[in-house]
Records
---
Amino acid sequence: MAMPRRGSRLITVDGTGFRWRVRNKPTYCQGNDWSPLTFAAERAEKPGDVLVVSLPCARPDN
């Protein structure tokens, strides 16, 4: 399933375009700083394969 285009941002890495999006509202665990920041990314040219990325830091809006 492809990500919605609304609310996502474009980034280019090594000449390949990606679309990424962070969830608008943090989950309960993310809001309490118990789990790391996660976001979804997919290739801009071939939407459909979504990669979920987890970073070793908290959400900046906590």
---
Amino acid sequence: MPYDRKRRDRGQVAIEYLGFIPILILVAMAAVQIGLIAYTAQQAGTAARSGARSASLRGDAQQGCREAVSGWLADGTDCPAAYTGDAVTVTADVDIPSIVPGWDFGQAHKTATMPLDH
């Protein structure tokens, strides 16, 4: 009798593991997506500072922003500059990439202000 019981239970762990795989995949995708959101926010801050630095030297804020971010984020980067008195403020908007098709996480927004170089 004990031999028959072992034989019937063979493969049970494999079947339970297969049922758990979708949950593991969802957790892994969520972790990667959270990392992408954090990385994009960091890149937006770098883009804003670089764009403000470029604009403060009478350069092109948009070009400074795009050169500061990773190449695969550059196409979704927009950095308008606003001049007020003796300072320039640049707001970087970087599209947050999604690993799940159809989900939109919006944009990361960061702002930097620098004095104009006279």
---
Amino acid sequence: MDTNIKDMPLGELLTLRETVNSAIEQYEQRQKEAALVQLEETAKTYGFSLSDLMSAEGPAQKRAKAAIKYRHPENPELKWSGRGLQPRWLVAALKDGTRRLEDFKV
């Protein structure tokens, strides 16, 4: 292709961009279809269909939100599930040694 894009007017450049984007989308779609055919053939060699394999484990399950186990006594907005690092408010409250972690248990 000997098209000099530096000399093309904006309208032609925009049309060219749409054409290229469309060609890329079509190429990717063909590649996906070819991959799907290949995956289905591979699944058949093991005696399964591709849908059997995809539903065998199901979609990844999201982890349930952890229950609140600790709460600040004066500010109920400050809470902690007990997972991960202790929040700053809890570290500060435990630092002086007058309170224990159990004092904040819900």
---
Amino acid sequence: MELAQKMPNRVKGFIMVITGSALWGLSGTAAQILFQEKHITAEWLVMVRMIISGIGLLIVSALKGFKPQSIWADKKQRIHLLTFGIIGMLGVQYTYFASIATGNAATATLLQYLAPVYIVLYTILKEKTKPSKEVWLAVLLALIGTFLLITNGSIEGLQVSFVSIIWGVLSGIALAFYTLSSAQLLKKWHSMVVVGWGMLIGGTSMTLITFPATVSNIVWGIDTWLLILFVVFFGTLLAFWLFVESIRHLSPTESSLLSSVEPLSAVIASIVFLNVTFGLFQAIGGLCIILTVFVLSLKKETAKSNFAVFRKKK
């Protein structure tokens, strides 16, 4: 009886996390079209996406009764929140979109997906513990996967630009920093409040570099607006809400593992809509990178909680 009653909720959770993750992946492909065909800069899109999404998440959190303004009453958290928003959130968003702008969404998403490896390695160094067999296997998979992804099995040339690879690696490192730096905030405040303020702070900071007026070269049209709306609302607000809601019906680890749909959707969308060539060895490399999360999920609960936070990035 209990199992029958729980099943619908678990199915709902599965649908939510898979849909949200797919939207995250598709938003990367939509961003690539905006960069390559509509001449929108990564800086401008990051600024607009973060400000609008941040405001949207804060409104939703207020409607749910989380009182987002109260976080500023905690003096100890103010500097932490500002650091998280400017270095963590803005760092993740900008490096990810810069990697897409100089390469493609599929590679950028997969390189960012290496973040759990960086998190575990950092934790091992900080706590001075001996790496487990799972960690060694994950690192090996990550190295092999990255090599195959960027070379397609040949050392004669890179399949994506070196600049894009650097941005992608930095994106994974930034995501690891984002995850670790947000852990303390998430212990006291709801993820919608933390991410909402982080996006708004990061997006506002971006205005110091990029202004709405610097859009003279953009190819405006209905399709341009639709793509921007998709990135902001479906690829950010709705995707994040679906993931957070899925945790009510699934364990954080299950949500984290199922969110591997994100890089898969980015790869498929890039191939279908952008005619991005993805060789056999690149596909194997991407699979190796995705497997790192599955391998690391076998570790203790402390590590698993890190992956749950890691997936709340977008």
